[in-house]
Amino acid sequence: FQGSDTRKPLNVAEVTLVLDNMDQRVPLDYDEVSVTRRVYRSGESEFYINKQSCRLKDIVDFLKTRYEVRVCYSTNVQDIDSAIMWSDIVWLEWANELTMELTNHPKNILKDKHVICRLHRYEVFSDNLLKIKWEAINDLIFVADHIKKTAIGRIPGLPQQVQNIHIVPNGVNLDKLKSKQRDKGWNIAYL
Q: Which residues are registered as beta bridge partners of 19?
């Protein structure tokens, strides 16, 4: 989270998904199971199941005990199309070239899918914003209210094109998190 006029920048973002396990379908002695990802500004990620540190593979394997899960890390068009055709819900983490291509796909590949797109700060100033077919998006998530206002300023009819618009702040309250003591690292110039 880069900050705003009223909020200072944060160095970490976190999201937690809480799953109902009352039926004990997942072999854990908990009525609820939480799956968490924490991302640091450095790009480093941490994953947790019920607040216990784990790997992303552990989370995928865990979810496979309850759901059918496929993971697609690919730039191959056929792999991406295949994953979308299999899915019921498509999460587009970035409003980028991929989102532009998929929403304008000649075979209307997103038809009958629930499509969620998250729009980050830099994307609101990209030309891709103007090329995305927003009618194909069911839920649009903005990372801040000022990003939503800027997007609507560039595309005035956006609220009528997207079924649901949400704001999920791209940050967490650092006062609630304990920081790890780290040794002094490198000084890096990012140009």
A: 33
- Which one-letter DSSP state was computed for residue 169? -
Strand, helix or coil at 67?
coil
- Whole-angstrom Cα distance, residue 42 to residue 152? 30
Segment 88-135, tens digit of pLDDT = 888 888 899 999 999 999 899 999 998 989 898 889 999 999 999 999
Strand order in the sheet with 12-20: 12-20, 32-40, 45-49, 52-54
Binning the chain into helix, strand and coil, the percentages to the nearest 5 are 30, 25, 50
Name the pTM for this structure: 0.63
- Strands (E) located in the chain: 12-20, 32-40, 45-49, 52-54, 89-92, 114-119, 139-142, 164-167
CA–CA gap between residue 90 and residue 84 (Å, rounded) = 7
Nearest-10 Cα torsion for 68, 102, 76, 85: 30
